[in-house]
Amino acid sequence: MSVSIRVTDVRKSYGDVRAVDGVSFEVNSGEFFGILGPNGAGKTTTLEIVEGLRQSDTGGVELLGESPWPRNPKLLPRIGVQLQGTAFFERLTAREQLHTFGSLYGVGPKRADEMLELVGLTEKAGTRVEKLSGGQAQRLSIACALVHDPELVFLDEPTAALDPQARRNLWDLLRAINETGRTVVLTTHYMDEAELLCDRVAIMDHGKILKIDTPAALVRGLDAPTRISVDSGNLSAADVTRVADGVAEVADDGAILTFTTRDPSTVLTALAEARVLNGLQVRGATLEDVFLELTGREYRA
User: Fold this and answer.
1) Nearest-CA neighbor of 76 among 149, 185, 132?
2) Model pTM greater than 0.70?
3) What is d(CA 54, CA 61) in angstroms, rounded to the nearest whole number?
């Protein structure tokens, strides 16, 4: 399998702050690769160095077999970049925006109109960008990044601040982009998004990559208990340990009784024999649990 991105021991500091501190990873061609991390982890700085928008202090980056820095004109037609905040041209419609972006790459109006259809904005083609909803504007920014048919696409938190429906619609679009054979690199704060979309993820904090693997492998590697919930009232918190051996913690909020265990099969059998399975929910570890285990639970603004 060929490699689209190779990053080797990249470092970037601003004064005493080490924004990127010895980052190394590879992204295979056709892969959907995610970079996860809390605020200030170094995700965006890393991505900007890989894209050729920022120079690293030390280390090397190879992008589609080329060095992205100094700014490499050979790479510009081959990559598409959607930044956290896209600045559109003022007072232009969605179609005019795409035609303008396309013209910068020598792409004709027909291709731009096809991109409007791909991102589901054909009905909004004549709408000025300031009148688009947040989700529609994000779709347009992705269309602008794809209008020249790049091999490699960078998406920096594309679903930030979107409502759940807009996020899920955008997920369908991102999956479709990847299924055409494009390599996609995504940064996101949403663990469910990364778990659903990414082939592999890198979890970053304090400028370092802590772990890289598939979401499933990262979850399997976490020694976390299973959470089991049933309707409250059928069984009291005090009764749980009597009915089911192996229960570690019990919580009752008045509506749902939740407990954790490392022996879910034994506990579920005991609950079934006691006929207290109403409202049963079983939740194993998720990528969010892995993320919190590696980066901590402290809130960062």
Assistant:
1) 149
2) yes
3) 11
Question: Residue written as tokens 């056709």?
Answer: 30
Q: So what's the pLDDT on residue 253?
A: 82
- 3-216 folds as Rossmann fold (3.40.50)
Q: Could you give the residue range(s) of every CATH 3.40.50.300 domain in the chain?
A: 3-216
CB proximity list for 20: less than 8 A, separation 6 or greater: 10, 11, 12, 42, 45, 46, 49, 56, 207
pLDDT at 262: 82
d(CA 149, CA 129): 22
273 residue type, one letter: E
Task: Give the model's confidence band at 51: pLDDT under 50 very low, under 70 low, under 90 confident, else very high.
Answer: very high
pLDDT per residue as tens digits for the range 270-283: 888 888 888 889 98
Q: Which CATH number fits domain 226-284: 3.30.300, 3.30.70, 2.60.40, 3.40.50?
A: 3.30.70
* Cβ-Cβ contacts under 8 Å for 89 (sequence gap 6 or more): 96, 97, 100, 129
Q: If you average pLDDT over every residue of the chain, what do you get?
A: 89
| Cα angle value 295/300/301 (rounded, 5°) | 150
Contact 61, 68 (CB under 8 A): yes
Residues of the chain with CATH 3.30.70: 226-284
Q: ∠ at Cα 186 (181, 189), nearest 5°? A: 150
